[in-house]
Design goal:
Length: 1011
């Protein structure tokens, strides 16, 4: 599976935004019109109430537009009616009116009235006296019925009664003959209100989210209708007469139960936008193909398996959304839709894209993940249309090649038997075992079938936790190795469970084999018992995880149903204040996690690798058959240009540590690739994990790290964490190398001789604090690196990977990195911060408030996350002091703390916190300190598409009181603007304490995190 290059959860959102664009456009237009109107001469006044009391200025008789919105008003002063003779526009939105104020009746010249977002239960009869009213908005109230008097508003052109509790409309409604726009969506209408049919001027109508499930046959009477919203109504069909609405331009039918359109739908020749998402279409509606002017077509989340060739008749299409259907192939003619700008295909069963994709050069929104793509391979498709075009050109010029090398990854605890299993599978003899770190070997598994694996043998040593996730990539086949002799049911988590969770978090939907070794040391009964136990517990863990995810998804669903206004009414409510948008993102993420589970192949196979081997041949055959299984594992069937595959083979033969662009270009030529075609080949090889090539890094883009075994060898030197091995490397290399260790080290600008004891001290410092000077690194890495440039490039690479950072010395930066120091944060072992580190208040200081953002990880804390984060934040902080689970530093003059809370017995989830503090008036400084770190962490967490985590903002009042479990406000608020008018929030923990809004919401919303 798939990285999160694109955010799936964004998609639903984007689609919704898009379909709301019309509405937004209307709002903008209104706002613009209003301000123009106001500017063009209306005298306007905005008043703010104090303690819900309105104080009127002396002379307001000339005022023509009065804005009293956002004031918590419950009534209006009586004298208003007599003093506002010229009032035309009255804005009363977001107050607390329970009924329309009586004085309104006296404002007979009123043209526009906005009473949305109040607590109205009815509209008073007196309202009928507003004879001049052209525009009335009473949306978001609790109105159960409209008075008959509404029919008296003869001038009315726009009416918004959406988001109320209306069950029907009064008969008099049909006399509103001037009405052009009616929003009656999100009410309780149980039948299509026939009163509307009399409104011959109506151009825009929204009836979404009501309770009726069918349209009347005489719907055709709405002859002027241009924009029609009928979303979320559960309609199963449209009447044939619908096709007579020939002025229709935009039609929203998403969220219904349509399985077909009426046959004469093609009569709707003015239709430009059509939303049919979330319906039950199994067949592409043929009738749509006649609507030649269509520009936007949304068919997401239906059951389509086929798109007709005739789609090219819709030559004006700009947006085409077909995601989350069951489409197996696209028609070749789709590339003729040359006006397309958005093509969304994700979540289908597409394996091959039609040729000539380059013709779709205008497409700028392109989503294809969650398809079993083999041609072009997934890695190419993800990079966008230009890369697909290059691939297809390459394919046209060069022959086809199939069966590239496949990644096979062995994982499991130390001493599980991975290495011996690898050797047994490959039929190579044991050449001394031991702990060598990660190993990469190529295995020609079946020459006849042209099956070659790149086998990654991931060390079980916990020191490699930081490094291992780099090797867990989509498109690999995974083998989880378990030592059956030492396995006991109690140790399931340690032997099996945690590896599955790790894999699922990094590569959701990966294919895994579980193999038990040491079968020779177990009795038959024991074998059966243990393999069954593993099998059973895998099922149980999966069930439990799915259950908790399901529960979370339910909570989100409930919160969404509640609606934003209920959610923001009280901090006691779950997801307090979280926007619909953020909740939908959360739901999409949870849906993704629920859908993309690991594919664990059963049964657990038991093998023995020593003595008379058992089941090794069987395992070999199973691996091959799974690898070749097109449905489980499409990767082997992807089609590559022969030139790309040749380049891969040529690169493999070269033993250098890295290649310059020019050397790579020479090999490219041998493979038949001109220089300008090299880039796409390299980029494909990088994406599929065959080499490292960072086309977007200024420091590295001129170099190709094609020799993965050597790069891995270098990582092994750093992560073995074995003092005597390191010392051996230093000394033996020093002695073996002609120039000797001392002279080499003397090249350091200090000019000081470094004796063995010095080197030892360096190693001690390295093992404790993760610090090494580049001179010693150079010694350590010999003979893997040879030149100063090797060293320089490797250090750039390690920094790019986030394994270490270069320590900036405040006084001098050494020329060409000669005596630079590097810090490897995963080595920091001391539990105590160094002296002089910034301290957070532990006692309740009276003036300082703490800002505490906490990330919690209920299933799995990504291994190496703290160390990687520690590298990423270095450019944001100064004066840092690191200990094993904590980083204390400053952002400018403001202290920040990053703190990891390892698992504790009885505690629910492992957490990582970002903390700062400031006095309340200066709270923005603390936010400024924390925000970039939050954004760095969000970026890192994107590498874990299957990870479950949540973010909380801990209540600063609770923190100040030293509460054991401070109240958590939802972290989603970080990406939301502070609500208008909100100054304090009550902390639910003790019911009375008020938390200043500045302690919960940042001054400006942070960039939206992906989850
Ligand atoms: N008896 C027996 N010993 C095994 C088997 N597989 C591995 N070993 C031994 O178990 C130890 C650890 O194996 P190794 O492959 O190095 O484990 P790794 O840490 O997972 O790579 C070595 O001493 C192996 O010889 C097996 O199937 N049967
Ligand atoms: Mg091993």
């Amino acid at each position: 599976m798939r990285t999160l290059d694109e955010n799936q959860e964004e998609q639903e959102e984007e689609e919704r935004r898009r379909s709301e664009r019309l509405k937004a456009a209307r709002l903008w237009r209104d706002a613009a019109l209003r301000s123009r109107k106001l500017r063009s001469g209306l005298r306007q006044l905005t008043l703010c109430a104090q303690n819900q009391q309105l104080v009127l200025p002396e002379d307001i008789s000339e005022v023509e537009a009065l804005n009293l919105g956002n004031n918590s008003l419950q009534e209006l002063p009586e004298e208003l009616g007599s003093s506002l003779n010229k009032l035309r526009v009255l804005e009363l939105r977001r107050n607390k009116f329970t009924a329309a104020p009586r004085v309104l009746c006296e404002l007979g010249q009123l043209v526009e009235l906005d009473m949305s977002h109040n607590c109205l239960r009815t509209l008073s009869e007196g309202l009928g006296q507003l004879r001049a009213l052209k525009k009335l908005c009473v949306s978001h109230n609790k109105i159960q019925s409209l008075p008959a008097q509404i029919g008296a508003l003869q001038a009315l052109e726009e009416l918004d009664i959406s988001f109320n509790l209306l069950h029907g409309l009064p008969r008099s409604f049909s006399s509103l003959t001037r009405l052009r726009a009616l929003d009656a969506d999100h009410n309780q209408l149980s039948q299509f209100p026939v009163e509307i049919l009399a409104l011959g001027q109506l151009e825009e109508l929204d009836l979404s989210g009501n309770r009726f499930v069918a349209l009347p046959a005489n719907i055709w009477r709405l002859t002027s209708i241009k924009v029609l919203w009928l979303s979320s109504l559960r309609m199963a069909s449209l009447p044939e007469t619908f096709c007579r609405l020939q002025n229709l331009e935009s039609l929203m039918l998403d969220g219904n139960r349509l399985s077909a359109l009426p046959p004469s739908f093609g009569l709707l020749q003015r239709l430009k936008m059509m939303n049919l998402s979330s319906n039950q279409l199994q067949v592409f509606p043929q009738a749509l193909l006649g609507v030649c002017g269509l520009e936007e077509l949304y068919l997401s989340r239906n059951r389509l398996s086929h798109v007709p060739e005739e789609i090219s008749q819709l030559g004006r299409l700009v947006n085409l959304w077909l995601d989350n259907n069951s489409i197996t192939r696209l028609p070749d003619s789709i590339v003729d839709l040359e006006n397309l700008e958005e093509l969304v295909l994700q979540g289908n069963h597409i394996a091959v894209l039609p040729d000539n994709f380059g013709k779709l050069s205008r497409v700028n929104i392109w989503k294809v993940k969650d398809n079993p793509l083999i041609q072009p391979p997934y890695e190419v498709c993800m990079k966008g249309i230009p890369y697909i075009a290059l691939y297809q050109q390459e394919l046209a010029q060069s022959q086809l090649a199939v069966k590239p090398r496949l990644k096979l990854v062995l994982m499991g605890r130390k001493d599980a038997g991975k290495t011996l299993l690898r050797r047994s599978l490959m039929g190579t003899r044991e050449d001394g075992g031991g702990n060598r770190g990660v190993e990469l070997v190529h295995w020609e598994a079946d020459a006849h079938r042209k099956l070659t694996f790149m086998v990654f043998d991931l060390s079980g040593n916990p020191n490699f936790d930081l490094v291992k996730p780099f090797f867990l990539s989509p498109g690999a086949l995974y083998v989880l190795v378990v030592n059956l002799k030492s396995y006991v049911p109690k140790s399931f988590h340690d032997h099996v469970g945690r590896f599955l969770r790790l894999l699922c978090a990094k590569v959701p939907h990966a294919v895994v084999f579980v193999v038990g070794t040491h079968a020779d040391l177990c009795g038959e009964a024991e074998l059966e018992e243990k393999t069954l136990d593993i099998h059973r517990r895998i099922g149980l863990q999966e069930e439990a995880d799915v259950r908790s995810l399901g529960r979370l998804a339910e909570e989100v669903e409930l919160a969404l149903e509640q609606g934003f206004s209920v959610r923001s009414s009280s901090p006691h409510v779950l997801f307090y204040g979280v926007s619909d948008r953020n909740l939908r993102r959360r739901r999409a993420q949870l849906d993704f996690l629920l859908k993309r589970r690991l594919q664990v192949l059963s049964p657990v196979l038991s093998v023995s690798c020593t003595g008379p081997q058992r089941n090794i041949q069987k395992l070999r055959e199973k691996l091959l058959s799974v690898a070749e299984h097109r449905d489980i594992f499409p990767n082997l069937h992807r089609v590559l240009p022969k030139s790309w595959q040749m380049l891969e083979e040529l690169l493999l033969q070269s033993s250098e540590l890295w290649l310059s662009w020019w050397s790579a270009a020479r090999l490219g030529l041998q493979a038949g690739l001109t220089e300008e075609r090299l880039q796409s080949a390299l980029s494909y090889l990088h994406e599929s994990g065959k080499l490292l090539y960072f086309e977007d890094s200024p420091a590295l883009k001129e170099h190709v790290f094609h020799n993965l075994p050597r790069v891995i060898g270098i990582l092994n030197v750093f992560f073995q964490r074995d003092r005597s091995m390191l010392l051996d490397r230093l000394l033996s290399e020093g002695e073996r190398g002609g120039r000797g260790r001392v002279s080499l080290v003397m090249q350091d600008k200090t000019g000081e001789n470094l004796e063995v004891t010095h080197l030892q001290q360096h190693l001690v410092a390295f093992l404790q604090h993760g610090l090494l000077p580049s001179g010693v690194i150079r010694l350590l890495l010999r003979p893997l690196i040879q030149t100063q440039q090797d060293l320089h490039l490797i250090m750039e690479l390690l920094q790019k990977m986030g394994v270490c950072y270069c320590v900036r010395t405040p006084r001098s930066t050494p020329p060409n990195g000669g005596a630079a120091w590097f810090k490897f944060p995963s080595y920091v072992s001391s539990e105590e911060p160094q002296a002089g580190a910034p301290l957070l208040p532990t006692s309740p200081l009276f003036s300082v408030e703490q800002l505490h953002i906490q990330y919690s990880f209920p299933f799995l804390f990504p291994p190496g996350l703290l160390a990687r984060f520690s590298v990423q934040i270095d450019r944001h902080v100064v004066h840092r002091s690191d200990s094993k689970n904590q980083i204390l530093a400053y952002r400018g003059k403001v202290p920040v703390v990053v703190s990891h809370q390892p698992p504790r017995a009885g505690q629910q989830a492992e957490t990582l916190s970002i903390i700062s503090h400031a006095s309340l008036p200066n709270m923005w400084t603390a936010w400024q300190a924390v925000t970039p770190l939050v954004e760095e962490l969000d970026a890192l967490l994107q590498e874990w598409p299957g990870l479950l985590y949540s973010v909380q903002i801990l209540c600063s009042k609770c923190l100040r009181r030293g509460a054991q479990s401070p109240h958590p406000f939802p972290g989603e608020l970080l990406s939301q603007p502070r609500p208008d008018g909100l100054t304090e929030i009550i902390c639910p923990k003790n019911g009375s304490e008020r938390v200043d809004v500045a302690l919960v919401y940042p001054p400006t919303p942070t960039a939206c995190s992906p989850k």
